[in-house]
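<instruction>
Derive structure tokens from the sequence
<data>
Labelled lines for chain and fold
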Amino acid sequence: MKKIIAANWKMYKTRQEARETALRLRECFAEGMPAADVIIFPPFLALAEIASFFADSGLPFMTGGQDVYP
């Protein structure tokens, strides 16, 4: 069974902070990817930018959106 690593960044990051976090993640995985699917849930306002960043970086990270359910 393949493992899943998921990170929910909530809504406390600005778009710039989300991009800086994505850059740090790219550095962390420069040596190789874990044997797991990695899914990042950035703040909704940064979702398109972060999804594009990961697609351009060559990292096989997936992104997802957050809902507002209490």
User: Anything to note?
Assistant: The chain has a mean pLDDT of 85.
